[in-house]
Every structure is written in structure tokens, then in C-alpha cells.
């Protein structure tokens, strides 16, 4: 019996497809580095230029991947639903912006350890990838609150967001609690009196993030080792009322007040979600 094209597509793991397989492969999973030279950037670029039906691609085992290869993937695999570029340190904003320019139907995107990525490409992901339900941005040393605020504002379908070990993230990256009141600047009469506070960095002048909506779909949020305070936790549990897993290990600036906010949110969720069976709140405030 002759199989249809849809039935004949398949998954390949930890090897590159042959010429015969290139037109049929749908899922390419390269998690484990092959022998020396198995997954070079040149080989990947040639492969992606010949694989038009790819839907999911994992390249965590191909750290030599460059922007050129990601551009070819975006141009060829027009039905790409998922992409894992973890530890592909040669990839930059150039490759990621090409993904967003092609309006691909991405539902999950994993960019852990892609250390050259900056705010413009992450903001572009938030604003253009409207179908995203999973986004992982751990270990990105250049990520700032600017792009994370866009994620809260535009990525309304997200169920999982991971931001662990991003050293520049602060409370400014997250929704502000409703009770936040900005301090008034002291009045200065006749040129006398205390001078107003001068921000030490440009991040300090970013206003609080006030959202007109709640993030109803978010279930998992990982903020391990981020420099956030109790105020950020207040805002998060208020704007993500259905969150089930909140990971705050290594957030050493948190105090007992953050725990109180989480407990209040848990009780509120339990009252409103009659089918709720489990809420996993993982906390470790360090030494």
C-alpha cells in the first residue's frame, strides 16, 4: 500500500538525514554531540536547505551552529513549531530576528545559554510569535528587564517561562503590585534642600510595569538566582493567578514577605479553581 506524504514523514535523532530522508523528515533531534565533524555548521546549513517539512528541531548537541544556518532553517522550514538552540553560543540576534521576520508558527522556543542574545531579538520574539506556549531564556547574561517586560505584555498564551540565572534581571522586569506607590520627590525651595535621587543606571529610570490584563495561561515560572525582591513576587502572583510552579531558588534578596504573598495567592487559586489538584511552589532563599 502506498503511504501518503504525511504518513511517510518521521523523526531522526542524533544523526543527519540522508538525501533520501531530507524531503521527508519532520522532527530532527540533535541532543548528543556526534563524532568529530558530525554536526558542523556547514553540514547543518546544507541539511536545512533541503528539509522543507521540518516542524521541530533540537540543536543542543550542535554547538557550532551559526546565524547562517538559522537563517536557512527559517527560510526553508516554513511550518516550524519548535526550536531548541540551547548552548549554541555562535547564534546571535541576527539569526533570531530572521526567525521572527518569517512569521513562523513557533509554539516553543528554547534559548538557554545562547549568550550573545540581547533585548531586541527577545522583544521581537514576544511581539511576533503569538502562538508561543513555552519560552526558555536561562543563562543569558545580556538579557535585561526591557525585553522581559515585552514578554509579559505580548506573550499572552505562555504556559512556561524560564528565566533562571539571568544576572541583569530585577524587579523592573516583572509586573508591579497593584499597591505600588511611587515615592514623591522632595520639594526644593529657593535652591536649598536635598537633591533628588539620581539614577545610577539607565535601568533605574524604567517606570513600573502596569499591566491592564492578567496572565491567565502561565503555569510555570522559573526565576532561579535572579536579583528580585518581595515586590516582584507580589506583582507576579497578582498578575499570574493560575501559576502552579514558581521556582525561586537562589533568590537571596527575598524575605518572609514573599512567602506570605505566595501563600495568599495559593489560597485564592484554590478557592477559584475547583479542579485544582496540585500546586508546586519550590522555594530556596539561600543561606
From TrEMBL:
Keywords: Ubl conjugation pathway. Residues 44-173 form the F-box/LRR-repeat protein 15-like leucin rich repeat domain. It holds the Pfam family DUF7885. The keyword Glycoprotein does not apply. The keyword Cell cycle does not apply. Gene3D superfamilies: Ribonuclease Inhibitor. SMART domains: LRR_CC (SM00367). Coiled coil: none annotated. GO terms for cellular component: cytoplasm. This is F-box/LRR-repeat protein 15-like leucin rich repeat domain-containing protein. It comes from Candolleomyces aberdarensis. The lineage of its organism: Eukaryota, Fungi, Dikarya, Basidiomycota, Agaricomycotina.
Amino acid at each position: 500500500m502506498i503511504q501518503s506524504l504525511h504518513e511517510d514523514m518521521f523523526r531522526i535523532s542524533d544523526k543527519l538525514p540522508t538525501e533520501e530522508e531530507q524531503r521527508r523528515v519532520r522532527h530532527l533531534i540533535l541532543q548528543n554531540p556526534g563524532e568529530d565533524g558530525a554536526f558542523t555548521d556547514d553540514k547543518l546549513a546544507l541539511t536545512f536547505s533541503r528539509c522543507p517539512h521540518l516542524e521541530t528541531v533540537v540543536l543542543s548537541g550542535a554547538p557550532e551552529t551559526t546565524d547562517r544556518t538559522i537563517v536557512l532553517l527559517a527560510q526553508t522550514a516554513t511550518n516550524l513549531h519548535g526550536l531548541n538552540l540551547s548552548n549554541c553560543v555562535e547564534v546571535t540576534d541576527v539569526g533570531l530576528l530572521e526567525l521572527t521576520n518569517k512569521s513562523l508558527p513557533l509554539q516553543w522556543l528554547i534559548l538557554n545559554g545562547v549568550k550573545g542574545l540581547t533585548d531586541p531579538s527577545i522583544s521581537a520574539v514576544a511581539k511576533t510569535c503569538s502562538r508561543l506556549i513555552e519560552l526558555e531564556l536561562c543563562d543569558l547574561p545580556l538579557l535585561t528587564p526591557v525585553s522581559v517586560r515585552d514578554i509579559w505584555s505580548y506573550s499572552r498564551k505562555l504556559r512556561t517561562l524560564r528565566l533562571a540565572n539571568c544576572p541583569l534581571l530585577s524587579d523592573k522586569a516583572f509586573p508591579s503590585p497593584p499597591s505600588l506607590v511611587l515615592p514623591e520627590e522632595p520639594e526644593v525651595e529657593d535652591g536649598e534642600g536635598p537633591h533628588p535621587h539620581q539614577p545610577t543606571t539607565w535601568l533605574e529610570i524604567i517606570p513600573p510595569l502596569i499591566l491592564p490584563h492578567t496572565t491567565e495561561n502561565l503555569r510555570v515560572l522559573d526565576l532561579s538566582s535572579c536579583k528580585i525582591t518581595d515586590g516582584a513576587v507580589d506583582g507576579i502572583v497578582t498578575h499570574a493567578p493560575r501559576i502552579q510552579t514558581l521556582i525561586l531558588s537562589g533568590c537571596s534578596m527575598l524575605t518572609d514577605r514573599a512567602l506570605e504573598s505566595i501563600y495568599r495567592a495559593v489560597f485564592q487559586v484554590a478557592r477559584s479553581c475547583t479542579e485544582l489538584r496540585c500546586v508546586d511552589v519550590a522555594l530556596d532563599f539561600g543561606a
